[in-house]
Amino acid sequence: QVQLVESGGGLVQAGGSLRLSCAASGSILSIKSMGWYRQTPGKQRELVAVIRTGGTTNYADSVKGRFTISRDNTKNTVYLQMNSLRPEDTAVYYCNLNWGVGELYASWGQGTQVTVSS
């Protein structure tokens, strides 16, 4: 069973920074990508950033230049450094892991609240 444990959310003023962490554990075979999504009430979950095996990254346009995703392969941990936070970044942030050999699986963290006050 795969577990994702997130940490680092909280309350911050606009312009501030937060760093999210997500550690994956369990029987994980061949990680394809790790990433972060976010969701606000009444809206669909949206991709924030993803980092693939090999190191390629993608970001939502709304966070480019402000957020940085990174990964520690030795710890199966992914990070999201969030700078210049805005009130519109307020959401529950979910860690995502895509993995598998042949058949692909997606695992999700429990979510961590990020609140940015104006």
Report what the structure shows:
The protein is mostly beta strands and 118 residues long. The chain has strands spanning 3-7, 10-13, 18-25, 31-39, 46-52, 57-59, 67-72, 77-82, 91-99, 105-108, 112-117.
Described by strand count, sense and barrel closure, the largest sheet is: 7 strands, mixed
End-to-end CA span:
40 Å
Please report the number of helical segments.
0
Query: Structural class, judged by helices and strands?
Result: mainly beta
Helix content: under 10%
One letter per element, helices H and strands E, the order comes to EEEEEEEEEEE
Tally of DSSP β-strands: 11
Q: How large, in whole angstroms, is the Cα Rg?
A: 14 Å
Weakly predicted, low-confidence segments: none
Average pLDDT across residues? 96
Beta-sheet strand percentage? over 45%
Outline: globular
Short description:
With 118 residues, this protein is mainly beta.
